[in-house]
Design brief:
The chain has a 31-stranded parallel β-sheet that branches. Strands 31-32 form a two-stranded antiparallel ribbon. It has a two-stranded antiparallel ribbon with strand order 33-34. By secondary structure, it is mainly beta. The longest helix has 20 residues. It is built from 4 helices and 37 strands.
Length: about 425
Amino acid sequence: MRKFITEFIIGFFLIFVFSYASAENISNCQNIYYPGEYTLTQDIINFDGTCFNIYSNNVIFDCQNHIIDGTSNPYGPVAINIVDVSNVTIKNCYFSDWSYDTIYIIRQWSISPPVENISIENSTFNHDSNGIEINSAVNVTMRNIKFISEKKDFITAPYDNYYCVRIFGGGKHSIVNSKFDSCSGYAVWITDGSTDNSIINSSFIGGYVGVDAIRSSGTKVNNCSFYGFSIGIELGSNGIISNSIFINNNLGMTIWGSNNSIYNNKILQGSLSDAWGGIRIGGGNFIFNNLINYTTPVVLMPIGYKYVDTLPVPIWGVNYWNTTRQYGLKIYPYGTEIGGNYWTNPYGTGYSDTCIDANQDGFCDEPYDLFGDGINVDYLPYSNYTPPTLPSYPSVNITAPIDLITFFFTPFFFLVVLSL
């Protein structure tokens, strides 16, 4: 009896391991109920309905660069539905013509098991009204994904790529090495209190808003580019925008909340003649070592109102426009100390362009009071002075008479030692 039980357990374990380790080839839309690796062997074209439902944990779904194509049906079918499961990877897919959501990831109820550790990799979304929707999940990674719109049939898809990525609640999601092109509405929309999401090494081109994270906290954007939006980024609280470039956006960024850090960015009006402003901001934020090139560099938003003689009077928040003077790579022009920001405009007549720097230390001699009221002040604005570069000298190569390491490990050396 004991032998039978042992053999049964071993057999069950081997079946489980084999089923998970072996890839199963699939060629048509279907439901996936068991863990394992599934590979798509052919394109799926003009499918009218939800194509794949994944109802199991521990699934790897590899499209092998095949197409999963819908019919632009506006009534709710999706390409891949991931419901109440974890540890799922979707990779190497090409999606087109899904008018609702292309990939839908959801934890349906509070009593549902956690939905976490989902990965979407190396995939393209073409002509999809809404690309990826994430609802109440944790730790979804989107890496090397691309949103494009090669077709422009606005009759069947009037909201072409309107939301490329939508995130509701949950958090700790990441978008890495990705491209958002032709997202006509919101490239990334993060809402419902989602927290601690990051967007890294990604590019955003065209649309209404690049990243809308107003109703979220802890959003981090690093080393990204935003071109041609009405608003590049809208940020809530406790976020970071760093090492990024904003060009030709009507409004570079809007900072609605507080305790955000904005540093090492280039915020450029570009060729726009009627831009709204570089940074629109409330209060309680830290902004330093940025190049801000806008006709209107900053638009201040009131953080509240008080009533004087029954009339509302805005209350303006205080922001901090410099860090302490310290060693670091200046954003512009070249220098090895950082502090505040470089303030310029398309005409080259901004504060940093025209301020006095008598001692040529790279900083204006006087602070820059942004609105002349002593509330928002850059105490270490950069000047346009560039220190002279050190002269260059010809390099000298010195060749050792013998390579000691090579010598000590030659057979000759060991023969000599052994003979002593």
